Amino acid sequence: MKRVYPADASLVVSLLDIHATCRTAEGQKGPALEILEAGTGHGALTLHLARSIHAANASVSTVQNSNNKLVSNSVRSARQAVIHTVDISPHYSEHAKKIVHGFRRGLYTKNVEFYAEGVSQWVNKQTLKRQSEDKDDKSFLSHAVLDMPDAHQHLAKVASVLCSQGNLMLFNPSITQIINAVDTIKRYKVPLYLDRVLELGPHMTGGKAWDVRSVKPRTSLRAEQEKSSSASNGNSTKDAAGTKSNSGTIEITDIDESQTSATQNAGNDEGLSEYGRSFEMICRPKKYARVVGGGFLGLWKKQSPREL
Fold first, then answer.
1. Model confidence at 25: pLDDT above 70
2. 103 pLDDT band (50/70/90 cuts)?
3. Contact 112, 85 (CB under 8 A)
4. Rounded Cα distance, 222 and 136, in Å
5. Spatial distance between the Cα atoms of 158 and 120, rounded to a whole number of angstroms
6. Which residues contact 94 (CB under 8 A, 6 or more apart)?
7. What is the reported pTM?
8. Residue 67 confidence (pLDDT)
9. Is residue 178's pLDDT more than 80?
């Protein structure tokens, strides 16, 4: 989680392309527009998101109930749009709640629900809750914003409850975190396609576009082809030598030793890969003692089943 400055927050809301309108259809219950923000922090982006959906809840009363709750159950049932903001730290969640409630006398309080837990845990609880209420809305999120350091570990879980063509956005201080997300989506075949990657910062109106893709260089392809062809030639040579002589120029013990050596090397490589996965690379420009504002933004869209 990083601090979101007003210029960055405005661009985030603009790219989500939020359409908050009052619902006129009868017989529908619950909010028609639900947005997830993972990584509440100080509540700056929360406020911008709450303002963007306020038109849908303009007619909902904000009178505080007798139980001293900021949002009553009657308000929850009447509103037509809501921001679910989740933070693993109860301290940040309570702080952001005070910020939102204190802004313009709590005008946007009714638009936000605060949760102090992990984002994957929140998704599981919401899914079970809606199943118990017999709600047929497995994909209940319209959009999602993940502003957290390990966002790539929660992509599949959040995408599973995202509506078709819904936006999923990552906001991170390092480009390597966006790369991790691209790699995770490709490796686990998460139904998301990358719309754009932007670098945000001072004097970057609208952001600077980056080309982030997962490709295999031609030299690597040639090396793999040569390796596979040489291995097939070596196997054919060994088979021919074995048929010519019964004395056995290639002994079984030699083969076992070579296989054992390969297994040991594979084990070492696996250990190194496990070691590598326990760390995340950080790449960011150095500017005095800290980087003020900016970061990297990745925007994905949920694919419908027929588009896969």
1. no
2. very high
3. yes
4. 50
5. 7
6. 114, 116
7. 0.75
8. 44
9. yes
Record the tokens describing residue 267, joined without a space: 């084990």
DSSP the chain: --PPPHHHHHHHHHHHT--------SS--S-SEEEEEE--TTSHHHHHHHHHTGGGGTTS-----TT--SS-HHHHHH-SEEEEEEES-HHHHHHHHHHHHHGGGGTTGGGEEEEES-HHHHHHHHHHHHHHTT---SS-EEEEEE-STTGGGGHHHHHTTEEEEEEEEEEES-HHHHHHHHHHHHHTT-SEEEEEEEEE-TT-TT-EEE-------HHHHHHHHHHHHHHHHHHHHHHHHHHH-SS-SS-HHHHHHHHHHHHHHHHHHHHHHHHHHT---------TTS--S-EEEEEEEEPPGGG-
Separation CA 255–CA 174 (nearest Å): 47
Q: Which structure tokens are listed for 30?
A: 């619950």
For 248, other C-beta atoms within 10 Å of its C-beta total: 10
Q: What is the pLDDT of residue 200?
A: 87
Extract the tokens encoding 112. 């936000």
